[in-house]
Specification:
By secondary structure, the protein is mostly helical. The protein has 12 helices and 4 strands; from the N terminus they run ββαββααααααααααα. The protein has a two-stranded parallel sheet with strand order 1-3. This is Nucleotidyltransferase domain-containing protein.
Length: 265
């Protein structure tokens, strides 16, 4: 299953750091309990948190307010993460108002334009860093190139009026979106640049059980691509040949990605 995502709301008298520590302890205890019960489940809660004052200001404003706030990563990722969500307590009027406001502003043209600009900047910045790093550290350059490709993918998704859900399913979802929007070949090229193609990948029972149209190779690719990102960000000691790093075709992939960003960024 996908992670359970919770976004805490603190009152202004709360110490965010202290509360985050307490929340993480409770999160870990719940995950351990679930795992011990035979139903391992991830719980994502922590840094995507907001204060009551921030939410009061947001729900009283319109999409322009959202567009100005998403320069802050909490708002950039939080608006997308909470889209379609609801307050944990049905009687929480502020939480319900915040969820409703997010549904209203997430795909407003002003917000989408700002998000596209942000993803474009991330794609071009990572590409420039990959180019600069390739001589001294090809493995780091490979990771940056793939990060750039993932950001370019997000540019397209925003332009198509779509969004992601589970990180462990996103590449197959991206390909399905691209098919709907008439650009399957472009999706295939970007997936290859991000080392997320199905050529080298083959557990899909849970996904097919809920009606997903996914092949063995697509499911394996989604999982490997997701965990490869986690390794780069959190456990670089586990990096190695299984992530295909450094990229043996780095120069060709760098040139192709530069071309794609120029065309679609």
């Amino acid at each position: 299953m996908s992670d359970i995502d919770l976004l805490p709301i603190y009152d202004d008298s709360t110490d965010p750091a202290e509360s985050a520590t307490q929340l993480d302890q409770r999160r870990a205890a719940l995950v351990d309990w679930w795992t011990g019960s035979g139903r391992a489940q991830a719980l994502d809660i922590g840094w995507l948190a907001f204060t009551t004052t921030e939410i009061h200001e947001a729900v009283a404003a319109g999409p322009d307010h959202a567009a100005t706030r998403i320069v802050d990563p909490r708002w950039f990722h939080g608006l997308d993460k909470a889209y379609g969500g609801h307050a944990a307590d049905p009687d929480d009027k502020l939480g319900q108002a915040f969820a409703s406001w997010i549904r209203e502003v997430r795909f407003h043209p002003t917000v989408v334009t700002t998000r596209i600009s942000t993803w474009c900047r991330q794609a071009t910045d990572a590409l420039a860093e990959a180019t600069a790093a390739q001589t001294e550290d090809l493995t780091r350059a490979t990771h940056l190139l793939r990060s750039s490709a993932r950001a370019l993918r997000m540019v397209l998704i925003e332009r198509w009026g779509e969004r992601f859900g589970s990180m462990g399913r996103e590449w197959t979802r991206f390909e399905r979106m691209a098919e709907r929007h008439g650009q399957p070949a472009l999706a295939t090229r970007i997936a290859a640049l991000a080392a997320a193609d199905t050529a080298t990948a083959e557990q899909r029972a849970a996904r097919t059980a809920v009606g997903e149209d996914v092949t063995w190779a697509e499911n394996a690719r989604d999982q490997i691509a997701a965990y490869a990102v986690h390794v780069v960000r959190h456990r670089p000691d586990l990096d190695g040949p299984w992530t295909n790093s450094p990229d043996p075709a780095f120069d060709a992939h760098l040139a192709e990605l530069r071309e794609l960003i120029a065309q679609h960024g």
